[in-house]
Amino acid sequence: MKGQSMGSELIEKYAFEAIDLIKKKEVSSSELLKASQERHLEVDSHVNALPYTFYDKALTKAKSINVDIEAQNNKSLLGLPIAVKDYNDVGGVPTTFGSKIFYNNIPLKSDSTIARLEKNGALPVAKSNVPEWAGGHTFNPVYGITRNPFNKNKIAGGSSGGSSVALATKQVWLATGNDLGGSLRTPASFNNIVGLRPSIGVVPRSLRYNRFDPLWVEGPLARCVKDIGLMLDAMSGYCKTDPLSFDHKC
């Protein structure tokens, strides 16, 4: 795939198609990252879905990916760029929860959910916008409001609004979300993408207080159902930080 239009062609593809191209060595993770960055620069100023990006940091990792080794793991996303909701920790990147209280909060390591995705080849490139301390409307005093890409006078939903809009505007192929009372499902429906609330224990969590919380779940957001299954495979399984998590076969 060559020429000026390569980036736009790549960003239009579903995640499963992009990964297939990596497996065939027709494109690299670095090329996908560049396509994502170009799209972000083109559209995000209109919607404010991904207010904090770290493409340079991600590029270093992308260049080190060995496709032959990664392909041996049938859960691997092979260096596919993803967006991470700003309630999840990525090592060395701010997690604000949409609050000025945590403006300078920079975790040293990724949380259980993101670490599992990174282990399985996901490449975080941006933090997606959230409501301050959760809610159904994505705006906060740190990064401002996220706009619905179909009608900027309408809300994007929440609390995974930034992730949902990033997918709707095709800035990334997959994005993380979490759900207590609709935070994966509502913004997905508002932005014409797909969000899945998994059963408790399917995706490991890094709950800071009640590790036996029966309501809070981490889950995938994508542009199609097949991509949801792909991401769910990459983020699921047992982790010692979550006593309710378990290994399973889809």
On the 0 to 100 scale, the average pLDDT is 94
CATH topology title: Amidase signature (AS) enzymes
The portion of residues assigned to helices is 25-40%
Q: DSSP strand (E) fraction?
A: 5-15%
Report the count of strand segments. 8
Biggest pleated sheet: 6 strands, mixed
CATH superfamily: Amidase signature (AS) domain
In DSSP terms (H or I, runs of 4 or more residues), the helix count works out at 9
Instruction: Indicate the CATH class.
Output: Alpha Beta
Cα-atom radius of gyration: 17 Å
Q: How many independent structural domains?
A: 1
Distance between the termini: 33 Å
Unreliable segments of 5+ consecutive residues: none
Structural class: alpha/beta
Q: What's the shape?
A: globular
Placed side by side, the strands forming the largest sheet appear as 1-3-2-6-8-7
The string of secondary-structure elements, in order, is HHHEHHEHEEEHEHEEH
Return the CATH architecture. Alpha-Beta Complex
Folded structure, characterized:
The protein is an alpha/beta fold and 250 residues long. It has a single domain, classed as Amidase signature (AS) domain (Amidase signature (AS) enzymes, Alpha-Beta Complex), CATH 3.90.1300.10. 32% of the residues lie in helices and 13% in strands. It has helices spanning 6-12, 15-23, 29-47, 55-63, 67-70, 112-119, 161-168, 185-190, 225-235, and strands at 52-53, 80-85, 122-128, 139-140, 144-145, 174-179, 194-195, 217-222. The protein has a six-stranded mixed sheet with strand order 1-3-2-6-8-7. It has a two-stranded antiparallel sheet with strand order 4-5. Helix 1 (6-12) crosses helix 3 and helix 3 runs antiparallel to helix 4 (55-63). It starts with 5 loop residues before the first helix and ends in a 15-residue tail after the last helix. The mean pLDDT is 94.
